[in-house]
Design goal:
Tetracycline Repressor, domain 2; 12 helices; 218 residues; 2 domains
């Protein structure tokens, strides 16, 4: 059956009905959501929490109460599902992270100082699995271009955000400051993922303070 034929089948035809009162990782069954959206939601959680290679398609479909027909009609392959998961995970993470940084202070320089507290809030928030992009690249062949491109795009968005704040704070070489802060962020996230030790955050705060002190004119 061709992909075009698969797409003509409705989700209602292709996927099992969720038993009344049952729950899954996508939420209560009373929430009416398309099976393809349930697949994406479950895949996001499992890929981030357990790893991409460790998470099989059958596990995703069982938890999402969805069929292979829906998965392959909507996404085409597990690799395409991974790319869509990372795209959505990255956009949501950046929205939450940028909002936390902005909410923590008003002045641009003070907002830059909120970078590590924002990571600390994420670490304490109950859904900390490290950076989805670093994890994905680490799991795959290092020359895999699609994942590297997604990771690079994610970093570009963060660098632009940090660079804009550094420029608004009148720091010399704002692009360099942004890269220094991003390296500190990535190091802190990786160390937290490996050790689970919140003491990492205290070191990261000192590193961030040193970066900003060195960057301030005079």
């Amino acid at each position: 059956m061709s992909k075009q034929s698969l797409k003509k089948r409705s989700d209602a035809e292709a996927d099992p009905v969720i038993p009344p009162g049952s729950t899954s990782e996508t939420g209560p069954a009373s929430e009416i959501r398309p099976p393809s959206e349930r697949i994406l939601t479950v895949a996001r959680e499992l890929f981030c929490r357990d790893g991409i290679h460790a998470t099989g398609i059958d596990r995703i479909l069982a938890d999402a109460h969805a069929s292979k027909m829906t998965l392959y009609a909507r996404f085409g392959s597990k690799e395409a599902l991974v790319r869509e998961v990372l795209t959505r995970e990255g956009a949501d993470w950046r929205d939450a992270f940028f909002a936390a940084v902005r909410a923590g202070a008003h002045a641009p320089l003070d907002r830059l100082r909120q970078v590590i507290p924002a990571i600390a809030a994420w670490f304490d928030g109950g859904r900390f699995y490290g950076c989805a992009f670093i994890n994905a690249v680490a799991e795959h062949a290092k020359g895999e271009p699609a994942l590297r491109a997604l990771a690079a795009e994610h970093h570009r968005h963060i660098l632009a955000f940090l660079g804009d704040l550094a420029e608004a704070a009148d720091l010399p070489e704002p692009a360099l400051v942004a890269r220094q802060i991003l390296l500190t962020m990535d190091g802190a996230i990786a160390a937290l993922m490996v050790s689970g030790d919140p003491a990492v955050l205290a070191v990261a705060r000192k590193n961030l303070d040193a970066i900003l002190a060195a960057a301030e004119p005079g």
